[in-house]
Amino acid sequence: MRLNTLRNPKQLLNKRVLVRIDANVPIRRGQVVDGPQGKIARAAVDLEWLRQHGAKLVILTHLGRPNGKRTPAYSVAPIAKRLSGLLGVPVKLCRDVVGAKAEKMVSVMQSGEAVLLENVRFHAGEEQNSRAFARQLATLGDLYINDAFAVSHRAHASVDAITEELPSYAGPLLVREVNLLHSLHAAVRHPFLLIMGGLKISTKLPVLEQFLPHVEAVFIGGALAQTFLVAQGKEIGRSVYDKEGVSIARSLLERWGQKIRLPQDVYVARRMSSQAKLHLVSVEEIDAKDYVVDVGRRTMRTYVRAIQRAKTIVWNGPFGYCEIPKFCSSTYLLARAIAARTGKAKTIVGGGDTIPILEAAHLAEHFTLMSTGGGAMLEFLAGGELPGVEALKK
Fold first, then answer.
1. Is 154 annotated as contributing to ligand binding?
2. Which of 69, 237, 303, 349 is 20 to 30 A from 63 via CA?
3. What does the pLDDT read at residue 232?
4. Which residues participate in ATP binding (predicted)?
5. What 3-state class would DSSP assign to 229?
6. Residue 82: how many other CB atoms lie within 10 Å
7. Nearest alpha-carbon partner for 39 in 354, 336, 347, 331
8. pLDDT at residue number 182
9. Domains with residue ranges and CATH for the chain
């Protein structure tokens, strides 16, 4: 897939460059939760390249879902602080997204300086893909770069409509993710394993339907597995599952049951607490008072053996309730097994819940691709058209 990219860095000198990044990361006690391979850290590498070539950086991002309203809890001020540390220069925060204050700050910028505009989702026009809002953004730049694959499945003004207002290019992060994911459709090596965790089956369904005819197996874990177990008529106690997805799971099992692998044993607890006692039981022994919190040892041994033979592996979503570390053992085991296969196999992992786990395990650099996008990755793999990507095709 050929995207429009910036070939000549001389074009950047003294130019105002609007750069859309994805810095939508957790904020705890006013500090961003973003490791050395996190979204902001990876975006900063490309921002520094632009800065070194004389660009005046006008950075765009969103944070959370403020629904078009100015919400202090969703201010991007902590992101400006994080970027300042990564770039080694002050990244000034503009408290407005567009308007006179933003225009004034940008007008006095010097080559190599950086300004971060306030959360683009504070403006209702962002999620409406408003051309009027896109035109206001465009007054702040001479050219536009989208380096945010994770939001490129959204038809939003700072991703889609803006490309009609300025010369527009795909950034290196976006290009690399698109090319690697596109290669899965072009030339897949077998055995091919699809590994799915998380909760909502509706977000996984298009990918499952796209790849089930082509994979050797799909390994299911996490809350997603509970939905399939309910579809089989099994007891899952008080565990979380996607009630609306049960009929979908049942249909998939009827059509592709020979390829869909579900847990045969699980860890259960009587309360969702780090002090809870874990019990290993078969899926036939789950009690009505139990919470299923992780995939069991026997199941994981089966999964790992298959991973050790695979040539293509795509993984999205944790296998346990990883908000509590003791419920995350199978996810760490899965991560280590896939990382060990990189080189002999193409390994692609993604999902907003997955990246912090991989960083905590010091495995973030050990995959062919650790995608910054969860929903975007799934939509792309399912064959969908991503507005932010389509807008930048040659």
1. yes
2. 349
3. 95
4. 204, 323, 351-354
5. helix
6. 24
7. 354
8. 86
9. 9-176 (3.40.50.1260), 188-381 (3.40.50.1260)
Condensed to tens digits (0 to 9), the pLDDT of residues 201-239 reads: 777 877 888 889 889 999 999 999 999 999 999 999 999
The answer to whether the beta carbons of residues 58 and 21 sit under 8 Å apart is no
Q: Does 64 carry a binding-site annotation?
A: yes
Q: Is the dihedral of CA 296, 37, 373, 342 positive or negative?
A: negative
- Annotated binding-site residue? 287: no
Decide the pairing of beta strands 312-316 and 346-350. Answer: parallel
Is 184 a known ligand-binding residue?
no
pLDDT at 209: 83
Q: Is 121 among the annotated ligand-binding positions? A: yes
- Extract the runs of DSSP E, i.e. beta strands, from the chain: 16-20, 27-28, 31-32, 56-60, 91-94, 114-117, 143-146, 168-170, 192-196, 217-220, 260-261, 265-269, 279-282, 291-295, 312-316, 346-350, 369-370
DSSP bridge partners of 369: 348
Helix, strand, coil shares of the chain as percentages rounded to 5? 40, 20, 40
| Structure token digits, residue 207 | 């990918």
What's the pLDDT tens digit per position in 353-373? 777 788 888 888 899 988 877
The mean of the pLDDT values for the chain is: 92
Residue 132 burial (CB < 10 Å; 0-12/13-18/19+)? exposed
351 is in an annotated binding site: yes
Q: Show the tokens assigned to 393.
A: 């095709």
54 annotated binding-site participant = no
Question: Residue 350 contacts by C-beta under 8 Å, 6 or more apart in sequence?
Answer: 315, 316, 369, 370, 371, 372, 373, 374, 377, 378
Contact 17, 57 (CB under 8 A): yes
Which pair of structure tokens corresponds to residue 359? 């960083």
Structure tokens at 216: 């050797």
- Is 326 annotated to bind a ligand? Reply is no
Q: Is 86 annotated as a binding residue?
A: no
Spacing of C-alpha 3 from chain mean position: 21
pTM: 0.84
The structure tokens listed for 46 are 């490309």
Q: Is 366 annotated as a binding residue?
A: no
